[in-house]
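Q: Protein A?
A:
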Amino acid sequence: MTTGSLGLRSSGSYGSLQQQLFQNSSSPIQTTPPIPRKPPKLFKEKEGLFLWICKFAPRKNVGMLLLCIVSAAAFLWVLYVGKGEVAAEQSNRMFAPETVHKYTFRGIESIQKNNVGQSASTVQPPPPPLPPSPPVYFKGYTLPPGNPCEGFTLPPPPADKKRTGPRPCPVCYLPVEQAIALMPDAPSFSPGVSNLTYIHEENQSKTEFGGSDFGGYPSLIQRNDSYDIRESMNVHCGFVRGIRPGHQTGFDIDDSDLLEMESCQGVVVASAIFGAFDLIRQPENTSEYAKKNVCFYMFVDEQTEAFLRNSSELNSSMRIGLWRIVVVHNLPYDDPRRNGKVPKLLLHRLFPNARYSLWIDGKLELVVDPYQILERFLWRKNASFAISRHYKRFDVFVEAEANKAAAKFDNASIDFQVDFYKKEGLTPYSRAKLPITSDVPEGCVIIREHIPISNLFTCLWFNEVDRFTPRDQISFAIVRDKIMSKTNWTVNMFLDCERRNFVIQGYHRDVVGRLTPPRANIIVHHPPPVVHESHHTSPFVPTSTVITTPIKKIPTKRGRERKSKRHRKVIAGNKDPNFN
């Protein structure tokens, strides 16, 4: 552009004043003709360039070169224009009045609500989900230093040559309040198996030998497979014919009772009396907390129910003292002792939501608070299963011979069972089995936590009772050893004298009926044990512990009565009065 065209723009026009006047030549304002001017030099240069292009473009090589140059220029221009439009759009959006107001408001709000220096208006992607936390397990505990139970040792047995049989010994319990406070919040670890389910079979077929409609007829292959411990297992465990234990399975229970049993979520104390074989004995020294929170269940058959109603002990409330009475219908076995093994070994199926259970035989009276027992034999030992060892016998083969001598079961069946276990590798007990201290339990008391590994143990133990004889003391060791060979799970086998500290053994009802009424009352209704005296006189009560011995010293008069009643050995048909 030359200098002659500068300065001719007006505020409302994009052209020169000269061009407007030329176009509006009819206007009266125009008085002089336009002055012709020479074309500018730049126009001549552009015209020469255009003629040059037209001259050489028809040539092939030059034409292709020019075409490529033009295409590249057009492509770059499109990119430049597009990028400018996007930037302009973002700029307009960012600085629009409503956007600026919104950002300003959010910025002020973030300053008011967030003092960590981050703007709440900043859009951040949601944080990645956290990995699942590892499961929490109870790992035991140690008593604080100075606690009398920490260094407690058993005193030597009293030198009483006149009394050589089993007797209770002192046990160091924590006070009830401390025992309750130490109840674990998390379950114990279950080694080897974490998911345990149970076989349901409506159509059953008998295989090999043993079994029943209630427990099923597992083959020997299935039996061997059940000892192959793995994370998820599906095993026979009674109640095979129904989808819900106690409902049309054999060992049937009323629905109202089943609902109550399913609602028990803490500790359950259970016992059973079938065939009116025993008398109901009330727990003693039970704390008010345990009375409100522990489930006390007594399973009876219809015969025992009729006896209790005739003796005016049972009314419509279906309660006798602390015990809730549950009547069992359609018993699966003809033998009352075998029927008793169902609640004894399968409490985890009858109480699916309970965490801990304490089983005591119907002939026993509980004289220590359940929480103190759980703390002493499970939690303090970091164990999930506890049972006392037999006071005298610790070898399965010796136990089998004692059962045969006492006519506890058919001798041929006992021999068949023992021979079968010998072929599977069962050997007589010796010191080589240490730290296992015994192969024979005193099975009238079982203390356990309901976790998969302990549930598996009692399922397999019940299967042995169902397949072979009901003498569970014979089958205990083979099941325990098979599981321990695959896992690091152990059983706390405590002393029999410690068991006799928290339960008192009474007579069966038929034995009581043969005794004179006054003496029967003395035997069945035991006087308060020394545990009361220890609570008042023990120097450890104000600190943290209590040492109790329910029957520490027998009065002289009562000792003469017991001496005069030795005829009960003949009645029981066994030289050992404590053999059961």
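Q: Protein B?
A:
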Amino acid sequence: MSKQTYRVCFCFRRRFRMTASEAPKEIKNLFDQYSENGIMDADHLQRFLIDVQKEVKTTRDDAQNMIERCTNELKHLNIFHRKVLNLEAFFKYLFSDLNPPLESRGVHQDMSAPLSHYYIYTGHNSYLTGNQLSSDCSDVPIIQALQRGVRVIELDIWPNSSKDDIDVLHGRTLTTPVELIKCLKSIKEHAFVASEYPVVITLEDHLPPNLQAKVAEMVTSTFQDILFSPGSECLKEFPSPESLKKRIIISTKPPKEYLKTKDVPKEGEPQKEKTSGENKETPAWGREVSSLKDGTVTDYKQQDLDEDSNDEEDPEDGDPKSADCTQYIAPEYKNLIAIHAGKPKGGIDACLKVDPEKVRRLSLSEQQLEKAILTHGKQIVRFTQRNILRIYPKGTRVDSSNYNPMIGWTHGAQMVALNMQGYGRSLWLMHGMFRANGGCGYVKKPDFILTPGSDDEIFDPRASLPVKTTLKVTVYMGEGWYYDFHHTHFDVYSPPDFYTRVGIAGVPADTIMKKTKTLEDNWVPAWNEEFEFPLSVPELALLRIEVHEYDMSEKDDFGGQTCLPVAELRRGIRSVPLHNVKGEKYKSVKLLMGFEFV
């Protein structure tokens, strides 16, 4: 790998010297400081782990065990001698999977609080394999979501063509259906593969009473004793994730009438309005997430905010949708519902009214949320302290793209529903959020969002708050592209020109992106650049990291990404694995980075 040749034309070739992956100057200086005669033994490594990595509880035995793990797991490199580390071995250790950026503590948050105290990993139209108009419906994306740790699965249930069974499909579109029973069986089989904490099935119900009764029979017979069924009455308080381990929960609106007309669009259904703020030439993953700053919605036109999406799951209670309806007669279906959904009459004030005697779930579109927070931000936060708020994508996202989930999370919304097949920056934020708490799909909301009080005491994410801490991020170098990509993938005529984007997603005051310089013609870029991020709400901050390859004539190429919860970052020098557009980890691509809180 000393030199690499690129063919420019039939008679001309360009040759480039290949840079070997070697320790940056800062790493060499640290090794010199914490070693003796070019050797780092257990005592030296212990001091390094305590002083630099801030692993203050490290014992000498811990350090010796780490050297032995390096010897065993990296022995193919043939650089470990007498169970001590030389410079090359120390560098390889720092850049290995033995030195991850996040704490490996498993589930470590308090899981005994009510469900409303947690952010919950939530999918939208979980059965769709692609776009919202014509893709196949299948249990495969449901299985994939559960395997990733998603805890809320959405199913739209409709009568089949013969009106004697139930299909799952996106209504009034060209999507091909999948049988409900197949989806239910797949959920049962895969629900607790990635996490033992409860799975919530939200149902979009478009059924007559006789088929609702059939759904009740299917659900009961499929899930049996793992189904959580508290009865037909609303809960006074939600139970905890701990008490609902390995349980299935049904959430929908208690049915009162059956809609026979087909003129009312469902929530998130494609509607006749123009998309806004999207460059059609930009690939879906490349669209930057929208944000709220200075009290304005930056990614939507005003008319978008004035038109609330119709929501068939949660229409205003008591507002008949059709004169041609049949009274509900299937109590066994109603008794399945553990989390009652509903949207009271009276507009946003009525929707956000907190009832001390019962709890419920409210659904709002992304547009409805962004409009509401301009005038009712603190009421939303107060509502979510006891009740569950679900946010879903606007109906014009027919390509299954997504919106900025931080807007919902910073206002306490528990179920921020994204299209799991809508790969891009919004979904990367979702992946990052739920890497926290052992990846169990439930992340405890910060105490300040849960603290009741007057309007002056309720958390306001748009308020100007003092800086709590500053995160210093050092981007040392990267490697692995040479092994995971073809040598002409980024540039036909030369090695790639990489740069790194690093920044924060969080409350508006903390949200920012910065970038390194571009290093030309280098498969192993060593940027050695430091960035500082003042954080007013570090508890809600996510660290965004992207690598791109600069292209003068076309759009820059994608070189990897990850997103990490700031609250769980390990201080010190860490190896940060990067993922592809879909969120799948590359085999070799990673960055060497430093994290420090000051």
